[in-house]
Specification:
The chain is of the alpha+beta class. The chain contains 3 helices and 8 strands. The protein has a single domain, classed as 4-Layer Sandwich (S-adenosylmethionine decarboxylase). It has a 6-stranded antiparallel β-sheet with strand order 4-5-6-7-3-8, with helices on one face. Strands 1-2 form a two-stranded antiparallel sheet.
Length: 144
Protein backbone atom coordinates (compact mmCIF):
# COMPACT_ATOMS: atom_id res chain seq x y z
CA UNK A 1 0.00 0.00 0.00
CA UNK A 2 1.51 3.31 -1.02
CA UNK A 3 1.71 5.86 1.72
CA UNK A 4 3.79 8.45 3.45
CA UNK A 5 6.56 7.42 5.85
CA UNK A 6 6.51 9.40 9.08
CA UNK A 7 9.93 9.82 10.64
CA UNK A 8 11.51 6.58 11.61
CA UNK A 9 8.38 5.18 13.23
CA UNK A 10 7.88 3.00 10.22
CA UNK A 11 4.16 3.77 10.01
CA UNK A 12 2.36 4.60 6.81
CA UNK A 13 -0.74 6.68 6.35
CA UNK A 14 -2.87 6.90 3.28
CA UNK A 15 -2.36 9.89 1.00
CA UNK A 16 -4.85 12.74 1.56
CA UNK A 17 -6.62 14.28 -1.37
CA UNK A 18 -7.48 17.96 -1.02
CA UNK A 19 -10.63 19.23 -2.71
CA UNK A 20 -11.19 22.94 -3.25
CA UNK A 21 -14.71 24.02 -2.42
CA UNK A 22 -16.24 27.27 -3.61
CA UNK A 23 -16.41 29.91 -0.91
CA UNK A 24 -19.71 29.99 0.96
CA UNK A 25 -22.27 32.35 -0.47
CA UNK A 26 -22.41 35.67 1.33
CA UNK A 27 -25.62 36.12 3.28
CA UNK A 28 -28.09 38.51 1.75
CA UNK A 29 -27.56 42.04 3.02
CA UNK A 30 -29.97 42.76 5.85
CA UNK A 31 -30.82 46.24 7.00
CA UNK A 32 -32.30 45.97 10.51
CA UNK A 33 -34.34 49.14 10.08
CA UNK A 34 -34.62 52.89 10.24
CA UNK A 35 -34.53 54.98 13.42
CA UNK A 36 -35.81 58.55 13.34
CA UNK A 37 -34.79 60.88 16.17
CA UNK A 38 -36.41 64.30 16.24
CA UNK A 39 -37.07 67.41 18.29
CA UNK A 40 -39.97 69.64 17.40
CA UNK A 41 -41.71 72.74 18.68
CA UNK A 42 -45.45 72.58 19.36
CA UNK A 43 -48.22 74.44 21.19
CA UNK A 44 -48.22 73.82 24.96
CA UNK A 45 -51.83 72.55 24.89
CA UNK A 46 -50.86 69.78 22.47
CA UNK A 47 -47.80 68.89 24.54
CA UNK A 48 -50.03 68.43 27.60
CA UNK A 49 -52.60 66.20 25.87
CA UNK A 50 -51.46 62.76 26.99
CA UNK A 51 -54.95 61.26 26.61
CA UNK A 52 -55.36 62.60 23.08
CA UNK A 53 -51.86 61.40 22.21
CA UNK A 54 -52.66 57.94 23.50
CA UNK A 55 -55.74 57.75 21.24
CA UNK A 56 -53.75 59.12 18.29
CA UNK A 57 -50.88 56.63 18.68
CA UNK A 58 -53.25 53.67 19.17
CA UNK A 59 -55.12 54.55 15.98
CA UNK A 60 -51.89 55.18 14.05
CA UNK A 61 -50.35 51.85 15.11
CA UNK A 62 -53.52 49.98 14.11
CA UNK A 63 -53.94 51.79 10.79
CA UNK A 64 -50.33 51.14 9.75
CA UNK A 65 -50.58 47.43 10.59
CA UNK A 66 -48.05 47.59 13.42
CA UNK A 67 -48.36 45.39 16.50
CA UNK A 68 -48.41 47.01 19.91
CA UNK A 69 -47.22 44.84 22.80
CA UNK A 70 -47.31 47.40 25.61
CA UNK A 71 -47.29 51.07 26.44
CA UNK A 72 -46.56 53.41 29.32
CA UNK A 73 -47.73 56.99 29.68
CA UNK A 74 -46.56 59.17 32.55
CA UNK A 75 -47.85 62.71 33.13
CA UNK A 76 -45.65 65.02 35.18
CA UNK A 77 -47.47 66.94 37.93
CA UNK A 78 -45.14 69.94 37.68
CA UNK A 79 -46.00 70.96 34.12
CA UNK A 80 -48.46 68.35 32.78
CA UNK A 81 -45.88 67.31 30.20
CA UNK A 82 -45.72 63.60 29.57
CA UNK A 83 -43.52 60.74 28.55
CA UNK A 84 -44.88 57.88 26.48
CA UNK A 85 -43.23 54.71 25.26
CA UNK A 86 -44.98 52.24 23.00
CA UNK A 87 -43.39 48.84 22.58
CA UNK A 88 -44.10 47.23 19.23
CA UNK A 89 -43.19 43.83 17.87
CA UNK A 90 -41.43 45.89 15.19
CA UNK A 91 -39.58 47.85 17.96
CA UNK A 92 -40.80 51.10 19.56
CA UNK A 93 -41.79 54.74 19.51
CA UNK A 94 -41.43 57.28 22.28
CA UNK A 95 -42.19 60.91 22.98
CA UNK A 96 -41.19 63.26 25.79
CA UNK A 97 -42.86 66.67 26.07
CA UNK A 98 -41.88 69.92 27.75
CA UNK A 99 -44.91 72.22 27.37
CA UNK A 100 -43.24 74.98 29.38
CA UNK A 101 -40.61 75.16 26.63
CA UNK A 102 -42.89 74.29 23.72
CA UNK A 103 -40.73 71.25 22.87
CA UNK A 104 -40.99 67.53 22.33
CA UNK A 105 -38.43 64.87 21.57
CA UNK A 106 -39.61 61.91 19.56
CA UNK A 107 -38.12 58.72 18.23
CA UNK A 108 -39.41 55.77 16.27
CA UNK A 109 -37.55 52.65 15.20
CA UNK A 110 -39.15 49.87 13.17
CA UNK A 111 -37.28 46.77 12.18
CA UNK A 112 -37.32 45.37 8.68
CA UNK A 113 -37.58 41.77 9.87
CA UNK A 114 -40.92 40.99 8.21
CA UNK A 115 -41.11 43.87 5.72
CA UNK A 116 -39.28 47.04 4.72
CA UNK A 117 -40.53 49.67 7.16
CA UNK A 118 -38.43 52.66 6.06
CA UNK A 119 -41.41 54.52 4.57
CA UNK A 120 -43.58 53.63 7.57
CA UNK A 121 -41.06 55.15 10.00
CA UNK A 122 -41.10 58.41 8.05
CA UNK A 123 -44.91 58.33 7.90
CA UNK A 124 -45.17 57.83 11.69
CA UNK A 125 -42.95 60.88 12.20
CA UNK A 126 -44.86 63.05 9.71
CA UNK A 127 -48.25 62.14 11.16
CA UNK A 128 -46.99 62.71 14.70
CA UNK A 129 -45.67 66.12 13.72
CA UNK A 130 -49.06 66.98 12.18
CA UNK A 131 -51.00 65.74 15.22
CA UNK A 132 -48.94 67.94 17.54
CA UNK A 133 -49.10 70.87 15.08
CA UNK A 134 -45.33 70.77 15.32
CA UNK A 135 -42.51 72.56 13.60
CA UNK A 136 -39.28 70.58 13.15
CA UNK A 137 -36.26 71.73 15.14
CA UNK A 138 -33.92 68.75 14.66
CA UNK A 139 -34.28 65.55 12.65
CA UNK A 140 -31.93 62.62 12.14
CA UNK A 141 -32.26 59.27 10.42
CA UNK A 142 -30.07 56.42 11.56
CA UNK A 143 -29.90 53.33 9.37
CA UNK A 144 -29.45 50.30 11.57
Amino acid sequence: MGGIQIGNLGRSIAAVTTVSLPPPAAPAAYSPGLHVLATFEAPAARLRDAAGSQQFFAALVARLGLSGVGEVYHVFAENAGFTAVLALTESHLSIHTWPEHGLATFDVFLSNFRRDNHATVRQVYQETLAFFEGAPRAYAEVLR
